[in-house]
UniProtKB/TrEMBL annotation:
This is Signal recognition particle protein. Composed of three domains: the N-terminal N domain, which is responsible for interactions with the ribosome, the central G domain, which binds GTP, and the C-terminal M domain, which binds the RNA and the signal sequence of the RNC. PANTHER family: SIGNAL RECOGNITION PARTICLE 54K PROTEIN SRP54, SIGNAL RECOGNITION PARTICLE SUBUNIT SRP54. It comes from Ruminiclostridium herbifermentans. It is an enzyme of class 3 (hydrolase).
Amino acid sequence: SVFEGLSGKLQETMKKFRGQGRVSEKDVKEMMREIKLALLEADVNFKVVKDFINKISERAVGQDVLESLTPGQQVVKIVHEELIELLGREQSKVTFSSKPPTVLLMVGLQGSGKTTTSGKLASLLRKQGKSPLLVACDVYRPAAIKQLQVVGGQLNIPVFTIENNTNPVEIATEAVKFANFKQHDLVIIDTAGRLHIDEKLMDELLNIKKAVNPHEILLVVDSMTGQDAVNVSQSFNEKLGIDGVVLTKLDGDTRGGAALSVKTVTGKPIKFIGVGEKLNEIEPFFPDRMASRILGMGDVLSLIEKAQDAFDEKQALELEKKMRTMQFTLEDFLEQMQQIKKMGSIGDILGMMPGIDSKALKEINQEESEKNMARTEAIIRSMTKKERNDPSIINASRKKRISAGSGTTVQEVNALLKQFEEMRKMMKMMTDMGKRSKKGGLGR
Ligand code: GDP
């Protein structure tokens, strides 16, 4: 499927990195090397790769990343962000003229999928309320005109042609007049393609452009052709000026290089992708979704975001201090539980934890842990603030009141108090150890 090789390699690199608690400049360099190789192998333009790597390296070795609580995750996030940037950042929609009909000129090499895409686009935009007219301007190949008529027939969208006319400029001009007359607010012109770019084709397209003043010129390129797709895009853009690219055949086993290079090399956005031969197999292009798809980590990324929303760094440091000095109370514990809940289910959170594989995850009884958490919360909520801050005052009668209030038993209240005391000791031990190894034994 799309980007399989690239995805696999990047994901492997990311996985190694994601869970790392501490990251050195050397680690980052190693990661950059792996990403670079993966991109080059995916046929991404060399210059694009170089710029991309420079950008992430610069950001990834920044002090705020290396010293953050989750450097591995931060680096993954940076790679994701820069990938989105590479793909064009925002979704670029096709625009419509304020003076209908909107004329879209479809251009591209023969076999790129121009005719199919013209039909797909007409159908897609009709769903958005437009009334499209398809125009067959490939006067050199009768088969091409016939093909567009077949597509139009399948979609029940009219196709404009002029029998025995070999002048594409005339056909295009007449088509726009016809659309005006028939109140079509959208005209999609399918033009002739060649196997290679030549002067004659460019002249013809320029003449059509002059005659009908298209609202947008969309270049259709075959993503299977890799670097060639990028070169073709560059030439068309220089000679004709294009407004956007439709990348076809992304359903095949393309290595993805074209998708990742087109925007940077031409400066023009990918607006749609073709993902199959059927006439509904076209999708608007979303840079963020594509980046997540390439990194194969849509879920993880959203969890990282959620975690960052839930825990800000200052709060985390405050908490660490409390743990270290044994000032961590049941009140803090309750607050922590709320933040964890904000991040999603226990399963979600464990799923993103490094070192927990899916097999181990299955063995953890999610329902049971969530019930436990709910019970713990109920018990703490049944305590007074004073009790939460100093559990040592909780005597037998208080325990009875708490268990009644939370719908639990006195044994369960006892268990929680005992568990909490042990947790506090453990926290102190762990934070002390952490401090020592971090500051080389000096402590704070
Ligand atoms: P044109 O010469 O540029 O008009 O190209 P066509 O529209 O005739 O398409 C050439 C071939 O590519 C046809 O067999 C199409 O079915 C196929 N094709 C077009 N777009 C896609 C796509 O997104 N995915 C796949 N798998 N095939 C496509």
